[in-house]
Amino acid sequence: MTNTKRSVTGTAPLLGTRALSRATLDRQLLLRPARLSATAAVEHLLGLQAQNVKPPYYALAARLDGFTPEALSRPMADREAVRIVTMRSTIHTHTADDCLTLRPLVQPARDRELVTFRRGLAGVDLDRLAGLARDLVEAEPRTMKQLREALLQEWPDADPQALAVAARCRLPLVQVTPRGLWGQSGQVSLTTAEHWLGRPAQPAPTPDAVVLRYLAAFGPASVKDMQTWAGMTRLRDAFERLRPQLVTFRDAGGVELFDLPDAPRPDPGTPAPPRFLPEFDNLLLSHADRTRVVPPEHRGRSWNGNVAYRTLLVDGFLAGLWRLGEDALVIEPFDRLTRARRDEVTAEGERMLRVMHPGSSYDIRFGAVRT
Question: Helix, strand or coil for residue 145?
Fold first, then answer.
């Protein structure tokens, strides 16, 4: 049973939208700069979505006190953090430890993903494909093009893209550096996590253990919220097993929300400073009901097709977009900002630029209100 629309009205305290906003921002290290190392923050946040190279750096710049790009680039170079496909079949930056456990956790979902490509894989022995692909990428890192070409020699009638997707789904393939390092370029070359990290994969954590970690980073949350974040189903049983040690609330729509008893739930009036978030930030992607961050009137405005924009939070909610041109940080609010709000946004923009682009000279400009 995965339906979260349980009838809890009158039996659990109500958490309004602003209360959920403040609680989630606190867990996401966005109410105040956190004094954590980059790897500790990546671990707490259960990874950072990372289709592109730069988003994880900007994500940490918005969250950490004293962050510099080198603070993430260095552990990636030292193989303490990696880029790998995990949650929702998307690339995430994870700590090495989480890479070796969270990927096994979502492996059943990656196996199911191959159903979409079954026509292109007709006649392909997937176990043999996985073994051959492992030998190839562990002999030397390979690009997806190189992997496709090598696998086509064994299965010339198969769909080339399906062969490469099958290798990615069946194996924990990490992107080797210099890909992912700040200020460096490099094509996507792949090897297995075990080969890159020099140690074997670990048993997948129990769903119960991951529920607790998810709530610590994204709670309070419903079963469906976590399923959306993980790209997994059938997590209701884990929540039910944990129910005696959790607390429950209800949102304005009557959906049951679970939480850790001692987790922070700040007063709804707690100030939330502006924050410049990258495209694909997990704050905006990890709940089925995103109204705790995205006002209904702005739903869908941070995306255009499959392209995500960099987003601006004001008072804890999605309030606009931003982009960095050759000489200016351009801010495009969705609604008119008061003078005080503009000053706060400008100050945060200046801070972000000092962190991410020290020594550079950028103007800060407000574009027209995006209607």
Answer: helix
